[in-house]
Protein backbone atom coordinates (compact mmCIF):
# COMPACT_ATOMS: atom_id res chain seq x y z
CA UNK A 1 0.00 0.00 0.00
CA UNK A 2 1.26 3.46 -0.90
CA UNK A 3 0.34 6.62 0.93
CA UNK A 4 1.19 10.12 -0.24
CA UNK A 5 2.02 12.40 2.67
CA UNK A 6 -0.32 15.36 2.50
CA UNK A 7 0.55 18.95 3.34
CA UNK A 8 3.86 20.69 3.79
CA UNK A 9 4.30 20.38 7.55
CA UNK A 10 7.20 18.29 8.82
CA UNK A 11 6.68 14.60 9.41
CA UNK A 12 8.64 12.50 11.89
CA UNK A 13 9.52 8.86 11.72
CA UNK A 14 8.46 7.79 15.20
CA UNK A 15 10.02 5.13 17.40
CA UNK A 16 8.91 1.68 16.39
CA UNK A 17 8.78 2.62 12.72
CA UNK A 18 5.65 4.79 12.76
CA UNK A 19 5.46 7.97 10.74
CA UNK A 20 3.35 10.70 12.32
CA UNK A 21 2.19 14.04 11.00
CA UNK A 22 3.20 16.67 13.53
CA UNK A 23 0.43 18.92 12.29
CA UNK A 24 -2.51 16.51 12.03
CA UNK A 25 -1.47 13.51 14.14
CA UNK A 26 -2.21 11.19 11.22
CA UNK A 27 -0.59 7.78 11.65
CA UNK A 28 -0.63 4.90 9.14
CA UNK A 29 -1.84 1.50 10.27
CA UNK A 30 0.91 0.20 12.57
CA UNK A 31 0.10 -3.40 11.63
CA UNK A 32 0.85 -2.93 7.93
CA UNK A 33 4.10 -1.95 6.22
CA UNK A 34 3.61 1.27 4.31
CA UNK A 35 5.40 3.07 1.52
CA UNK A 36 5.12 6.78 2.18
CA UNK A 37 5.83 9.45 -0.43
CA UNK A 38 6.15 13.19 -0.11
CA UNK A 39 3.83 15.12 -2.45
CA UNK A 40 6.96 17.05 -3.44
CA UNK A 41 10.54 15.97 -2.89
CA UNK A 42 12.50 18.00 -0.34
CA UNK A 43 16.14 18.95 -0.91
CA UNK A 44 18.62 17.78 1.70
CA UNK A 45 20.67 20.50 3.43
CA UNK A 46 24.37 21.00 2.76
CA UNK A 47 26.18 18.29 4.72
CA UNK A 48 29.79 17.54 5.64
CA UNK A 49 30.03 14.08 7.16
CA UNK A 50 32.71 11.37 7.20
CA UNK A 51 32.38 8.04 5.42
CA UNK A 52 33.52 4.67 6.73
CA UNK A 53 36.51 5.09 4.44
CA UNK A 54 37.54 8.22 6.33
CA UNK A 55 36.66 10.52 3.44
CA UNK A 56 34.39 13.53 3.29
CA UNK A 57 30.78 12.73 2.41
CA UNK A 58 28.48 15.59 1.44
CA UNK A 59 25.04 16.12 -0.01
CA UNK A 60 26.59 15.80 -3.48
CA UNK A 61 27.37 12.16 -2.74
CA UNK A 62 23.64 11.42 -2.83
CA UNK A 63 23.38 12.73 -6.38
CA UNK A 64 23.16 10.53 -9.45
CA UNK A 65 21.47 7.45 -8.00
CA UNK A 66 18.69 6.41 -5.66
CA UNK A 67 19.76 5.96 -2.04
CA UNK A 68 18.27 4.24 0.98
CA UNK A 69 19.26 5.77 4.32
CA UNK A 70 18.94 3.95 7.64
CA UNK A 71 19.77 5.63 10.96
CA UNK A 72 21.19 3.61 13.86
CA UNK A 73 24.44 2.62 15.61
CA UNK A 74 26.81 -0.35 15.65
CA UNK A 75 26.13 -1.31 19.29
CA UNK A 76 22.42 -1.74 18.54
CA UNK A 77 21.33 -5.18 19.77
CA UNK A 78 18.43 -5.83 17.42
CA UNK A 79 16.88 -3.31 14.99
CA UNK A 80 20.12 -2.41 13.20
CA UNK A 81 21.49 -5.89 12.48
CA UNK A 82 18.06 -7.16 11.45
CA UNK A 83 17.35 -4.21 9.15
CA UNK A 84 20.80 -4.25 7.55
CA UNK A 85 20.51 -7.99 6.89
CA UNK A 86 17.10 -7.41 5.28
CA UNK A 87 18.48 -4.57 3.17
CA UNK A 88 21.28 -6.82 1.95
CA UNK A 89 18.80 -9.49 0.89
CA UNK A 90 16.57 -6.86 -0.72
CA UNK A 91 19.50 -5.62 -2.84
CA UNK A 92 19.74 -9.04 -4.46
CA UNK A 93 16.08 -8.86 -5.44
CA UNK A 94 16.30 -5.53 -7.26
CA UNK A 95 19.55 -5.92 -9.20
CA UNK A 96 17.70 -6.49 -12.49
CA UNK A 97 15.79 -3.21 -12.15
CA UNK A 98 17.83 -0.67 -14.13
CA UNK A 99 16.57 2.15 -11.91
CA UNK A 100 18.15 0.50 -8.88
CA UNK A 101 21.32 -0.98 -10.35
CA UNK A 102 23.40 1.86 -8.85
CA UNK A 103 21.37 2.30 -5.67
CA UNK A 104 23.44 2.95 -2.56
CA UNK A 105 22.49 2.03 1.00
CA UNK A 106 23.75 4.45 3.63
CA UNK A 107 23.93 3.67 7.35
CA UNK A 108 24.06 6.86 9.43
CA UNK A 109 25.41 6.38 12.95
CA UNK A 110 23.95 8.59 15.68
CA UNK A 111 26.65 7.36 18.07
CA UNK A 112 29.77 9.26 16.93
CA UNK A 113 31.46 8.72 20.30
CA UNK A 114 31.77 4.99 19.69
CA UNK A 115 31.31 4.63 15.94
CA UNK A 116 34.56 5.62 14.26
CA UNK A 117 34.90 5.23 10.48
CA UNK A 118 36.94 2.06 11.02
CA UNK A 119 34.34 0.56 13.34
CA UNK A 120 31.60 1.36 10.84
CA UNK A 121 33.56 -0.30 8.03
CA UNK A 122 34.12 -3.46 10.06
CA UNK A 123 30.48 -3.57 11.13
CA UNK A 124 28.99 -3.06 7.67
CA UNK A 125 31.35 -5.68 6.27
CA UNK A 126 29.25 -8.28 8.07
CA UNK A 127 26.27 -7.33 5.89
CA UNK A 128 27.37 -5.89 2.55
CA UNK A 129 30.73 -4.45 1.55
CA UNK A 130 29.00 -1.91 -0.68
CA UNK A 131 27.01 -0.34 2.16
CA UNK A 132 28.26 3.12 3.14
CA UNK A 133 28.62 4.13 6.79
CA UNK A 134 28.51 7.76 7.90
CA UNK A 135 29.60 9.49 11.08
CA UNK A 136 30.90 12.95 11.87
CA UNK A 137 30.34 16.03 13.96
CA UNK A 138 27.19 15.73 16.13
CA UNK A 139 25.85 19.01 14.73
CA UNK A 140 26.12 17.67 11.17
CA UNK A 141 24.47 14.40 12.14
CA UNK A 142 21.66 16.36 13.78
CA UNK A 143 21.25 18.42 10.61
CA UNK A 144 20.77 15.28 8.53
CA UNK A 145 18.50 13.43 10.96
CA UNK A 146 16.28 16.49 11.35
CA UNK A 147 15.99 16.83 7.59
CA UNK A 148 14.98 13.17 7.35
CA UNK A 149 12.63 13.30 10.33
CA UNK A 150 14.54 10.46 12.02
CA UNK A 151 13.75 10.10 15.72
CA UNK A 152 16.21 8.69 18.26
CA UNK A 153 16.73 8.93 22.02
CA UNK A 154 19.88 8.11 23.99
CA UNK A 155 19.66 6.48 27.42
CA UNK A 156 21.83 7.56 30.33
CA UNK A 157 25.10 5.54 30.46
CA UNK A 158 25.24 2.76 33.04
CA UNK A 159 28.02 2.26 35.60
CA UNK A 160 30.27 0.85 32.87
CA UNK A 161 29.61 3.72 30.49
CA UNK A 162 27.44 1.60 28.20
CA UNK A 163 24.18 2.92 26.82
CA UNK A 164 21.42 2.16 24.35
CA UNK A 165 19.98 4.48 21.72
CA UNK A 166 16.31 4.01 20.90
CA UNK A 167 15.52 4.68 17.26
CA UNK A 168 13.03 3.80 14.55
CA UNK A 169 13.34 1.17 11.86
CA UNK A 170 12.32 3.65 9.14
CA UNK A 171 14.29 3.63 5.89
CA UNK A 172 14.45 6.91 3.99
CA UNK A 173 14.35 7.09 0.20
CA UNK A 174 16.61 9.76 -1.33
CA UNK A 175 16.22 10.68 -5.00
CA UNK A 176 19.11 11.02 -7.48
CA UNK A 177 18.71 14.77 -6.98
CA UNK A 178 19.68 14.45 -3.28
CA UNK A 179 16.09 15.01 -2.18
CA UNK A 180 13.99 13.22 0.44
CA UNK A 181 11.38 11.42 -1.64
CA UNK A 182 9.75 8.92 0.71
CA UNK A 183 9.89 6.69 3.76
CA UNK A 184 9.67 2.93 4.11
CA UNK A 185 8.29 2.14 7.55
CA UNK A 186 8.63 -1.14 9.41
CA UNK A 187 8.20 -3.95 9.96
CA UNK A 188 10.44 -4.94 7.06
CA UNK A 189 11.12 -8.09 5.10
CA UNK A 190 13.33 -8.38 1.98
CA UNK A 191 10.56 -9.28 -0.46
CA UNK A 192 8.25 -6.61 0.93
CA UNK A 193 10.98 -3.98 0.81
CA UNK A 194 11.73 -4.76 -2.83
CA UNK A 195 8.05 -4.71 -3.76
CA UNK A 196 7.33 -1.44 -1.98
CA UNK A 197 10.45 0.23 -3.34
CA UNK A 198 9.53 -0.66 -6.92
CA UNK A 199 5.95 0.50 -6.32
CA UNK A 200 7.17 3.84 -5.00
CA UNK A 201 9.39 4.40 -8.03
CA UNK A 202 6.60 3.34 -10.39
CA UNK A 203 4.23 5.80 -8.72
CA UNK A 204 6.72 8.66 -8.89
CA UNK A 205 7.45 7.99 -12.56
CA UNK A 206 3.73 7.87 -13.37
CA UNK A 207 3.01 11.21 -11.74
CA UNK A 208 6.10 12.97 -13.16
Automatic annotation (TrEMBL):
Residues given in the record as Cu cation binding sites: 76, 80, 167
UniProt similarity note: Belongs to the SCO1/2 family.
Keywords: Copper, Disulfide bond, Metal-binding
Annotated S-S bridges: 76-80
GO molecular function, one term: metal ion binding
This protein's record includes keyword DNA-binding: no
Entries under SUPFAM superfamilies matching the protein: Thioredoxin-like
Keyword Disulfide bond applies: yes
Record-linked InterPro entries: SCO1/SenC, Thioredoxin-like_sf
Pfam families in alphabetical order: SCO1-SenC
Gene3D superfamilies named among the record's database cross-references: Glutaredoxin
Name of this chain's protein: Cytochrome oxidase biogenesis protein Sco1/SenC/PrrC, putative copper metallochaperone
Amino acid sequence: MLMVLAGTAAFGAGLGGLVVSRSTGTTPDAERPEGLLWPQVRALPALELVSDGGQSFGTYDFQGAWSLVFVGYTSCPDICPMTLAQLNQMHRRVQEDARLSRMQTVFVSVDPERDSPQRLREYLGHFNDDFVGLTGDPAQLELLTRALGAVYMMEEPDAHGDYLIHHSSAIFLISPGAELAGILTGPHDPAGLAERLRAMLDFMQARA
